[in-house]
Fold this protein.
Amino acid sequence: MNRKPSLFSRLMTGLIFLFLYAPIFVLIIFSFNNSKSRSVWAGFTLDWYDKLFHDQMILDALYTTLAVSVLAAVIATVAGTFAAIGFYNMKKRWRTPLMTVNNIPMVNAEIVTGVSLCLFFVAFFNLWGDFAHWVNGAFGLQLPEQLYLGFGTMLIAHITFNIPYVILSIMPKLRQMDKNLVDAAQDLGCTWMQAFWKVVVPEIKPGIINGLLIAFTMSVDDFVISYFTAGSSTANLAMRIYAMTKKRISPEVNAVSTLLFVTVLVLLVIINVREARQERAAAKQRIT
Amino acid sequence: MPKELIRLANCTMAFDGEVVLDNINLYINDQEFLTLLGPSGCGKTTTLRIIGGFQTPTQGDVFFDGVRINDVPPHKRTINTVFQRYALFPHLNVFENIAFGLRIPKTDPESRRKVKLPESEIQERVLEMLKVVNLKGFEKRAVSSLSGGQQQRVAIARALVNRPKVLLLDEPLGALDLRLRKDMQIELKRIQQAMGITFIYVTHDQEEALAMSDTVVVMDEGKIQQIGTPEDIYNEPKNAFVADFIGESNIIDGIMRADGVVEIFNRRFQCLDKGFAKDEPVDVVIRPEDVDIVPEGQGQLKGTVTSVTFKGMQYDIIVDFYGFKWLIQTTDLSPVGSRIGIKIDPDGIHVMKKSHYSGMFGDYSSYSEEYEEISDADYDPEAEDQEAEHEEE
């Protein structure tokens, strides 16, 4: 039998990679192009990047992106860690269906998540408006009666879609943990909370950090869900890029997209290297 | 007069309505080495976890030094545990594992303030403990780099360094190989005597229980079957389960004809047991080593040898008496097929009341299979896991 891949399958592989990566490659190259043209190379320049960092709209979007991503990642990680521990301590007959429910949002179409969150927020704002109106009238308070989509709603949305990823990255670490470790810590004088900090957290730390990184990565480049929940006054980088492509397209778009691409790429490399290392360490431990 | 330290009074434990412990009554003396012995699923680990405070009995009370401790959490009990498969903290080295309990601030009973031990005392106590368990010089090692036996010692040191009144040990030698297990048995007994601490030891290995314990508690089906010294348990088993679980036994149906006279296979034997009703049906235990082989004509019973296994110190032979197969241990070879007679001294016969275990054990007709089961007393982690999983539910 011919063990070598046939010419055809090699050609197909090549084509797939070409279609996947050539556009990104071109995008990156032309972010350094010393011309507005997107087809003719006119020499190397960093002008577009320079311009980027003097564009207030871009800087605002960058700030929003970082703020949302960092906050959402941290909050989702804390919530997800405790949720994972809750799942872990559940009886199997409850845990299995709940884990399935946890996994659905990850495969769910983003647009559905985005639209449903948007509708949820709007519905909540209406109820809130009535409530605030009543409170203000009855107690003479100055609660805002009209709430808007904005940074807060976008943050809540990001936290929501990040939590399942955090849970998913922590669960295996909990399962690998010796069931008796918490008992042992309590036996040696710890309260449950002390046992959690002194034993459980160090044991699942790799999972927590991976969850944090994944959550951050998901948030940094999110467009669809942000688009539906950020309202009209707030925009993150992805939304900014989308807005820029609607008008005259300048190579600034290339530059900002390149930055986003490189950020996510670096994060993914870090996550994968960490996971591979942990797997190797776990395999080593099994042998000894 | 030994002082009572722990008492379980009418303790029942049920998980989802399934009774795992059924009305257990047990007291444990200060400085005693007590073993809970039984097959997996018998409730021994649950009993240990109740004493440790990891589970609260569904019914009944637990007393420590006369004080009811049902609701005292594990971290407030002066009891420490050596867990199955050790449960060492993988992210800490040997020193920090042992120092773990010492580093937790304790409430001072007088000032009611949290007090931390001074570093110098921690240092001193950990190093002293390392000496006790023969691990001097291992302080800086990662626990994952240690052998099973060494990890075991760290687990013991980690528990003992807190100077508990009671040490609970949950199948601590289960994962070690036979040679190491024997060494550790002696080691554990030495530590227990040197430190004067009460040990409560859980195992399914009857040899281990007999070799180490002051008191053995045999459990099955969530009930205590018998409590006694190793000698009592071996020589005077209360029912067929205990007789079969502890050592090898031929268990035969008999009828008590009078005090000191029991009838087996329509022949009367002298025995030392008294206090049964006249003509009461009983279970008779005869240990394989208590049977003397004599020429056929001189025997109280006559039978045919059906199988011979060389065991080094002795031969295990199976002899067919009137269709019932006995295991006899002898140093003289009797070839398969030969006819032999046997004699049993009165002190080689032990008579037991009938129980619901009667007829379940003690026949060696299916010897080879049963033998496999017995020699396979090795630790079976999967069975244990199932048990643990079950208890979790």
The longest helix of chain B spans residues 178-195.
